[in-house]
Amino acid sequence: MTLDNERSLVREACVRVIAGSTHSSVLLHVPHSSAVIPDWVRERILLSDAQLEAEINRMRDSYTDSIAATAAEQAQIRPHLFLNELARQVIDPERFPDDREAMAKIGHGAVYLKTSQLTPLREDDPAHIAELLDRYFHPYARQMANEVETILEARGVVTVLDLHSFPREALPYEVSDGARPSICLGVDEFHTPPELIDAARGAFSDFDIAINTPFAGTYVPLKFYESDARVHGLMIEVRRDVPGTVPGLDAVCRAMTQLVDSIH
What we know:
By secondary structure, the protein is an alpha/beta fold.
């Protein structure tokens, strides 16, 4: 992935934004692919090094950074990329940072208190949680909103394609017991227009697809959430065994590129 056109790097928030073509209205969002945890954050995590490594591997979205980079390189009109360079054990940028977050009840709010196994990850220390939110979560949200606003100003519409992967077997923290297809499309009533769903179904037609299972919804910056219909969103969740071979990864990348090319 070339960084020649990298727009900005927010070092404190560890966000990388790579500008695409000025003619693109597509923003590829990769929030959970990193394994990086700053030393001062690691000091407050209750797991041993081996336990933490295992937890990161369970929760990390494998392949999504490669899929996004390949789709960006191969697309007819290069999309914009927004990548989180911190592990989700630091902050999860896709959670609500307040009482709206249902997953906070099981320790999986914007700052995780529990592991994927529902064992303690860190102490429930309000001061530490507030520091993590201030240092990482809120700058991330602001930068994402700025990127969306920049594309809106240029194109009048923006489509956020939110890339994730999930394991074949459900982890204990998951609240869904639904099907686990090759591809899960997460949609939102306000932000996902029917034609975007149709485009995704067409692009991934070689795979078995389900809507909103095992995960539902999609990410839109809070600034625009349920208030600006020009901001479209679709979550693409790839079951991790699907791109686990070279042919499988190539097939997913081709489908992702086709989806990007279908959005105008």
